[in-house]
Amino acid sequence: MSPNVPRRYWLTGASSGIGLELAKVLLESGAQVALSARSREPLEALARQFPGQVLVAAADLTNSQAVREIGAQIAQAWGSLDTVILNAGTCEYVDARQFDASIIEHVVRTNLLASSYCIEAALPLLRAGQTPHLVGVASAVTYLPMPRAEAYGASKTGLRYLFESLRIDLSPEGIDVTVVSPGFVDTPLTERNDFPMPLRWPADKAARHIFAKLNGRPLEIAFPAMFIATLWPLSKLPNRVQLLIGKRMLRSPPPHKDDL
Ligand SMILES: NC(=O)c1ccc[n+]([C@@H]2O[C@H](COP(=O)([O-])OP(=O)(O)OC[C@H]3O[C@@H](n4cnc5c(N)ncnc54)[C@H](OP(=O)(O)O)[C@@H]3O)[C@@H](O)[C@H]2O)c1
User: Which of 9, 117, 143, 152 is catalytic?
Assistant: First the structure.
């Protein structure tokens, strides 16, 4: 593609947090961006701020039909996509004492299944695009089992496998695949966390970091470096040692059997 032709992106989860900041960085670079989230107003606000650059594609991405319609909307408007960044996600914590499978279902539906609907819609458009790039936002949680993260960790580990497997299968077609693994970032998602979040970054810094790395087509964009440097070696420890580390993160002991 000539340097004068703007790159065309589809970014999900663009209404808040990392996605909203990434949308601004992409638009400031002159790109054309299809923006998805359930909340339409923040997407419309970006469309007003960057006239002619935004395709508002608001929908609940857990609805596979709605995602197909976004694919059709982008196909009609642009006919192709160069980069797809699947960033939409949610987090809910599990209380193992009252294990509720609906939490697993909701988080996996949002983080994993919705991403697969987006991939189905995106691939034909990427195949028609220039130097196509598929990007998925997973999480550093995939490096180590964490307490209460049964739902979130399962969804993000599944997402990682989906992307890493797809990377192999798409390589003959020249579609690059990158997994983003943030540590802690200040967003509405983490505002609710009631535990320490070491080395956390502001969302605009995370967005600028992701954008700066995208051009190099790395397999992985993991940050903050200090956080990853601590976490990564732990991922290589034997399971029994990982269990001891996880137990030290438990905030309260399990109920005594006399309390039950
Ligand atoms: N913040 C962190 O520390 C951190 C760390 C590791 C990974 N991550 C990952 O980074 C991504 C962005 O998270 P964030 O921290 O920026 O959270 P956030 O501020 O809560 O943003 C989440 C985005 O996803 C969208 N979304 C959620 N459910 C959706 C659905 N069903 N359909 C369409 N859009 C949906 C939200 O928009 P609507 O509500 O308007 O639909 C919002 O735009 C997530 O995948 C998250 O797991 C975050």
Answer: 152
Q: Which domains does the chain have, with CATH numbers?
A: 8-259 (3.40.50.720)
3 alpha carbon – ligand 1 mean position (Å) = 31
pLDDT at 259: 42
Decide: 233 in ligand 1 pocket, CB within 6 A: no
CA-to-CA distance for 118 and 219, rounded, in angstroms? 20
For residue 92, give Cα distances in angstroms to 103, 135, 179, 243.
7, 23, 21, 21
- pTM comes to 0.95
The structure tokens listed for 112 are 């994993």
Helix (H, G, I), strand (E, B) or coil at 85: strand
Tell me how far apart the 2 most distant CA atoms of the chain are, in Å.
72
Query: Is the bond preceding residue 132 a cis peptide, omega within 30 degrees?
Result: no
Gap from CA of 17 to ligand 1 centroid (Å):
7
16 lines ligand 1 (CB under 6 A): yes
Determine the atom of ligand 1 nearest the C-alpha atom of 15.
43
**Bridge partners, residue 9, by sequence:** 33, 83
pLDDT in tens, 65-77: 999 999 999 999 9
Q: Is 110 in the pocket of ligand 1 (CB under 6 A)?
A: yes
pLDDT tens per residue across span 147-205: 999 999 999 999 999 999 999 999 999 999 999 999 999 998 998 888 878 889 999 99
Q: Whose CA is nearest to atom 17 of ligand 1?
A: 189
